[in-house]
Design goal:
The structure is a homodimer of 324-residue chains.
Chain A: H1 8-18, E1 26-28, E2 35-37, E3 44-52, H2 63-81, E4 84-94, H3 100-116, E5 120-128, E6 133-141, E7 156-160, H4 165-174, H5 183-193, H6 199-207, E8 211-216, H7 221-232, E9 235-239, H8 247-252, H9 256-262, E10 269-273, H10 275-280, E11 290-297, E12 302-305, E13 311-313
Parallel strand pairs in A: 4-5, 9-12
Antiparallel strand pairs in A: 1-2, 3-6, 4-6, 7-10, 7-11, 8-10, 9-11, 12-13
Chain lengths: 324, 324
């Protein structure tokens, strides 16, 4: 494609230099018809997620954050399998008037987050598009991957980190509040714009065979727990009092519990643990906060146990994208 | 995402059924956070191409042809490496008003072309988008992949099939001529809308170690031969009289030679052959028409030798997408 400034040739030369593979298993990186790598002995785990301007982000979303988030959401998918990320390919659709500076910042940031997670960029495709589209493919390795379908009645339900932080970040972003404008809002905006995929935790959990089922919370707890229940053919009880909600979130929003239950994009891990493993869980070094929020039950459907002990159906609410 | 008719759940259930893997090496297909497969002993070859509405195709492009073409362009990339396609993942951005019937036809066709090439659909991502976007990732296996960088002075330059057919198809499509409207235009429209990736030929060429360098002709002969020259640090001579142009194309367009030289989307293979291999080339069963069109030369730059013996520089012309 033709673009202002840098030619396609210069761009590819720049990307080749930037993403020169240091990984011995890469036989051929960016610049040919396809990339080539030597797989190891382990099964390969592969995921692909697309982010679209106007749907998943606004046009003025800073490129360095977009790059991070587009890889992070895929890293989070691998984390939810307990897999170790290895290789990525990018697909980038950009308007013809995209500035070099934008691309420079995007790829510098993509390179940064790839390095942070020992991910090698193998190649990709850059093409003209009416609005910005980022489609990443991520390949990893996993010996014993954790599926969504392994939860059994009696298992405990756990979640990593804090819930609802990103939903509050989305609220603030919708109100036009900028990152850096106020200390009190930054933690939420960071959670929304630059979520941290729980890669190390996912690998540790899988390595110690802790979870019977696992998923990452991208669409919201109610939806993603619903996926585990459906795939496993079970139900679940969630205790509202047990939800890991920060004092800051409670203070910032009267909808804190709603955000923790239904807000998307937290990219924390949601997993179930058998009673046998639960007994020894405290002896396993996970290096990360996890919180028990409920239990897996027989039959179908999910129940929310309120702080006063009353029970009500927990209905999955579809996460609304940025456009909403 | 929300869509008219079929819910996301129903759609995933449908895709799971449609793309149920018959391949033993697939451990986990569609429906979890990621797909899992067991790699073989061979290096893995991976490519990713994005097709965008309004850039690569018009909004009324029939879904079954779009599905075929989106996989074909990736199959062609693997063919150009001499790799055997194995697994694909799709990324699909669709407007919210996309009909079930559209999706049904798209995925039925994708399933069809995947089967034709023994490709297993491992999974993917469907999301809302302002206009249609198709991003496919294709994984294959290749023992001795053929790069763009291996051409040496004295090598012969070959091309498979016919050139310029797709460019004429694009011309007709731009003029609003429909496929099926006239027998004389159908061959060109088919070449443009439903190109045949040269997968078997690519594998045979690589298997017999025929090419020193290989690429597929997606941007046009002049551009793609330019890539081989640049990556190999060589020049090339192309003989106009040797270009495989069909009598039908010569009859249909006064620009036949121009189309053969610069028209994109033919998805034929362009490869170079050393003098030693050239001697025995006729004894190698390739099962496909190949034509010698020129030679690799020392130094830089490409030259076109006209039918009257005169020489002129062959300047790569960027292929113009559908929007042009």
């Amino acid at each position: 494609m033709k673009r202002r400034g840098l030619s396609e040739k210069e761009l590819i030369a720049d990307l080749r230099k930037r993403f020169k593979p240091s990984d011995d298993s890469v036989i051929l990186g960016i610049g040919d018809d396809a990339a080539v790598f030597r797989p190891g002995d382990m099964p390969l785990v592969v995921t692909k997620d697309m982010l679209v301007e106007g749907v998943h982000f606004l046009p003025d979303h800073p490129p360095h954050l977009l790059a991070r988030k587009s890889l992070s959401v895929n890293l989070s998918d691998l984390a939810a399998m307990g897999a170790r990320p290895r290789f990525a390919l990018f697909g980038l659709g950009i308007p013809t008037d995209t500035e070099n500076d934008w691309l420079e910042r995007f790829f510098r940031s993509l390179s940064g987050i790839a390095s942070e997670h020992d991910v090698t960029l193998l190649g990709g495709d850059i093409t003209e598009a009416p609005s910005l589209i980022i489609s990443l493919t991520l390949l990893g390795e996993g010996k014993d991957v954790i599926r969504r379908s392994g939860a059994r009645p009696g298992d405990a339900v756990f979640v990593s980190g804090l819930l609802g932080e990103a939903a509050q970040g989305l609220e603030l972003a919708k109100q036009g509040i900028m990152w850096g404008a106020a200390a009190g809002s930054d933690r939420f905006l960071k959670a929304f714009y630059d979520p941290v995929p729980q890669v190390a935790l996912g690998c540790r959990l899988a390595g110690h065979k802790v979870p019977t089922a696992m998923i990452d919370i991208s669409d919201g707890l109610s939806v993603d727990l619903g996926h585990i229940c459906e795939e496993s053919g079970v139900g679940a009880e969630v205790e509202a009092a047990g939800l890991p909600i920060s004092p800051e979130l409670r203070q910032s929003s009267p909808a804190a519990e709603e955000m923790a239950l239904h807000g998307g994009e937290d990219y924390q891990l949601l997993f179930t643990v058998s009673p046998q493993v639960l007994e020894n869980l405290t002896r396993i070094p996970l290096g990360h906060k996890i919180t028990r929020i409920g239990s897996i039950t027989e039959g179908e459907g999910m129940v929310l146990i309120k702080a006063d002990g009353s029970r009500q159906p927990l209905v999955p609410k579809g996460y609304q994208h940025f456009r909403a």
